[in-house]
Structure formats: C-alpha cells, structure tokens
C-alpha cells in the first residue's frame, strides 16, 4: 500500500468509526516495550491477585504480533458510556440503603456492543480495499488496551490506571482492531495529571498504592467482581454499599467535568439498577437475578457472589429490623461462602445494637 493510499485509508477509517458511534478512533504501532516493563513490575509485586490470566499468556499481551500473527498496526477506539450525572452517582453512594453498581454495568454488556461495531468497521475497510488480515478485541483477550489507546492518542493513563481524555474524561470503553495494514500512526497522548492525587486519596480501600500502581487485591472492583471466594474481613467495612465494582476514582477526577452523557440507549440503566434498594436486590431469587441481569456484564459473577456482595453492603447499612430479618432469612443458603458473609453482616448489627 502506497503512503498516499494508507493516509487516505486512515482518514476513512476514522470517519467510518465516528459514523458507527465511536467518539474517537486512533492508530498506533505495536511497540509496547515501556508498557511491558510496567506490566512485568506489576506482576512481580503480585498486584494481580487471582487474575491469573494477566500472566498466563506470557508476552502475547504486550507483543501484539504474538497474539495475532502479522499485526503491524492497531486501530484503537473509544465509546462513551456515562449514563447519569456525577451528582446522581454521589447521591447513591451517600445513601447506605441503596445498592451502588459501577455505572459501566448498568446497561447492556459493552463487549457485545463494541464488538459488533468493530466488525462493521472491519467490513467497511474490507469493502474498500479487499481482504486483509485483522482481529477485533473488546476486553476479551491478552491485550494492553490502555497502553494502546494512549499510544493511539485517545488519552493518557491516569494515576488510577484508567485512560483519561482531556475533552471527555474517562467514562468510556475501549476496543481494538489488530491488522496487517501499514497505517500511519497518531501522536501518543501526553500525561496531564500533574500533582493531583485525588484518586489516590478517595479510594475506599487505598488500592492505588502509588501513582499508576493499583494493587488489585485491595480494589473494590476486584473484590466484588473478580474474587471468587471470601472477601477479606478487613475490606468489608470499607466497601460500603458498592455491590458491583467501584467508580470513586473516576467520580473525583477533575477531568471528568468534561465528560458527556452517553447517546447509546443500550448503556442506560436497566431494571432501575441505578436506584435499587439493597433489601430489594437481596430478596431476588436466582431466577429473578438471572432475568434482570440478562445481557448484562453483572451476570458473570453469578448468584452466590451477588448475594455475598449484598450481604456485605447490608452489614454496612444502618441497623434496622428489616435488615436483620432479611439477613437471617438467608442464613440457610446452600453456599458456605454466602452464609459466612451473612453471619458477618449480622454480627455488625449485633455489635451496634
């Protein structure tokens, strides 16, 4: 492909991406040597906890051509997902009787939405130039998506490890197309966190142990989503009413004053998941949990971890007969893990009463 042709194709790819609903499209090469060093240091500290997949694939994560042979360029995209205002989110977090679910998970599973759009983008490229080598990813394989997004100019990796865009904040999803096309690359984003440490200070469990270093073993998102067993007792009081993930570091980030609400209806809350009472979601039988999380990222944790997380939140809720009775009503749960967390929650209220 001649240079003029590749430049024109890159412009078309970005235009098509915007037409498909992405807010930004960037292109980068596959040199992730700096990110590879950062990843190896992070793994050496055991900050990944039970995230075994972070080292299972060796260097495929930081060397794209090892994951998809022939890759020389990466098309990186972002899509905004913010479903409500910062004030609404803060109000939910402040009400200990309401369940807080990370805002990325309130609507339809983003994996499916972005993957379909990326396939449509690949189809448009193929219709223009003929067959080419590619593979699309949305948080579904050993891909250093944040490092690629930074190199592609979509934003910089902030001190909380999320990607931040100067004009759009950090409330967005990322996706990639690995390709064998020799495309011109964009200018990498530069860091603009400055001396700000708001995200480090706000983290409920102090999981951001240093700028750009997150100890997943302490992170509420890890504890409520990735961790399969018991949540360590020392973190339970700190989790508050967060039953699936955590957004605190994004809520406090000053760059998110530029974030815009999403135009994607699929990212809007389903089944009032942004305002559900803890007692109500704790009362859901398994079939209702499965029904109301159908097509959602939430379903991946399963019913037992759902109850585990809510039990912890109820242990942190104001003491009332309704809370105590709800917890007691589930003490016969089949899962030993769930029973243990329910008993812990009951003990919190007995200590206070």
UniProtKB/TrEMBL annotation:
Organism per entry: Crenothrix polyspora
Location (main, coarse): cytoplasm
UniProt: [4Fe-4S] cluster 1 binding residues: 193, 196, 199, 253
Active-site residue numbers: 139 (proton donor)
Gene name as annotated: yjeS
EC number: 1.17.99.6
Role, per record: Catalyzes the conversion of epoxyqueuosine (oQ) to queuosine (Q), which is a hypermodified base found in the wobble positions of tRNA(Asp), tRNA(Asn), tRNA(His) and tRNA(Tyr).
Requisite cofactors: [4Fe-4S] cluster; cob(II)alamin
Name this protein carries in UniProt: Epoxyqueuosine reductase
């Amino acid at each position: 492909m001649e240079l003029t042709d590749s430049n024109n194709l890159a412009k078309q790819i970005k235009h098509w991406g915007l037409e498909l609903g992405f807010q930004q499209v960037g292109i980068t090469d596959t040199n992730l040597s700096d990110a590879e060093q950062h990843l190896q240091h992070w793994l050496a500290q055991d900050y990944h906890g039970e995230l075994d997949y972070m080292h299972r694939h060796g260097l495929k994560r930081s060397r794209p051509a090892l994951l998809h042979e022939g890759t020389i360029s990466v098309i990186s995209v972002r899509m905004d997902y913010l479903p409500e205002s910062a004030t609404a989110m803060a109000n939910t977090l402040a009400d200990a009787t309401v369940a807080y679910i990370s805002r990325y998970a309130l609507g339809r599973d983003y994996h499916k939405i972005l993957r379909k759009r990326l396939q449509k983008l690949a189809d448009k490229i193929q219709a223009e130039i003929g067959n080419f080598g590619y593979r699309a990813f949305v948080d579904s394989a050993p891909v250093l998506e944040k490092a690629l997004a930074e190199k592609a100019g979509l934003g910089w990796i902030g001190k909380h490890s999320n990607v931040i865009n100067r004009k759009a904040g950090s409330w967005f999803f990322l996706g990639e197309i690995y390709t064998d096309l020799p495309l011109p690359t964009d200018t990498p984003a530069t860091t603009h966190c400055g001396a700000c440490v708001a995200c480090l200070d706000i983290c409920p469990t102090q999981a951001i142990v240093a700028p750009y270093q997150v100890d997943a073993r302490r992170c509420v998102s890890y504890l409520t989503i990735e961790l399969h067993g018991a949540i360590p007792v020392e973190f339970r009081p700190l989790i508050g009413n967060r039953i699936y993930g955590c957004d605190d570091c994004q809520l406090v980030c000053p760059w998110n004053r530029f974030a815009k609400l999403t135009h994607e209806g699929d990212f809007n809350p389903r089944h009032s998941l942004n305002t559900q009472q803890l007692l109500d979601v704790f009362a859901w039988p398994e079939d209702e949990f499965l029904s109301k999380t159908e097509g959602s990222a939430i379903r991946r944790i399963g019913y037992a971890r759902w109850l585990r997380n809510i039990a912890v939140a109820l242990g942190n809720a104001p003491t009332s007969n309704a809370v105590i009775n709800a917890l007691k009503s589930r003490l016969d749960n089949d899962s030993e893990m769930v029973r243990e967390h329910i008993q812990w929650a009951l003990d919190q209220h007995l200590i206070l009463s």
